[in-house]
Amino acid sequence: MALPSLTVDRSSRLRGVTMLGSVRVYLCRHAKAAPGEPDDLRELTGKGRSQAEALGERLAALPDPPVVVVSSPLVRARQTAEAIAEATGAPLEIDSRLAPGATILDLREALMGRPGPVATVGHQPDCSEIAFAVTGVDPGFSPGAMAQLDVESAP
């Protein structure tokens, strides 16, 4: 479910930068993962792989697809991000600031100096908390879900 975006300067929209120095972010939750321990090594299930591929295709079809994919280092997030990167042709970067517990401040730091739009892959409840911090609304993030936000790239 996409969220309403802030006002966008159309002259810079193709670069994913808004009038307010924000970066267009496609905030994604990783796809369905298998249960198990250790948590950081949990892999996507078959359904999760399908969700990740569908998410990648959805992002690739956007008028402004991501120019980079930034992912949590956990296996399930990396696997989701790999599917997005493959579908969009965007390079993939791993950033430990998107690991479980990530906040809006962590996301802003991870965005600093990056052109947009950026697809990020993280975890719950972090995605809901970040979306709420930016928009005042929690769209809910089922596995493989995405919300479009315009996020200030510096705190």
> How many distinct folded domains?
1
- Tell me which CATH architecture applies here: 3-Layer(aba) Sandwich
Question: Mean of residue pLDDT?
Answer: 87
Give the overall form: globular
Secondary-structure element string = HEHEHEHEHE
The name CATH uses for the topology is Rossmann fold
What percent strand?
Answer: 15-25%
Structural class: alpha/beta
| Range of helix content | 25-40%
Instruction: Please identify which CATH superfamily we are dealing with.
Output: Phosphoglycerate mutase-like
The number of helical segments is 5
Strand order of the largest sheet: 3-2-4-1-5
CATH class category: Alpha Beta
Q: How many E strands?
A: 5
Description:
The protein has helices spanning 10-13, 46-60, 75-88, 104-111, 126-135, and strands at residues 22-29, 68-71, 92-94, 118-122, 146-152. With 155 residues, it is α/β, with parallel strands linked by helices. The chain has a single domain, classed as Rossmann fold (3-Layer(aba) Sandwich). It has a five-stranded mixed beta sheet, sandwiched between helices.
List the topology elements.
Layout: H1 10-13, E1 22-29, H2 46-60, E2 68-71, H3 75-88, E3 92-94, H4 104-111, E4 118-122, H5 126-135, E5 146-152
Parallel strand pairs: 1-4, 2-3, 2-4
Antiparallel strand pairs: 1-5
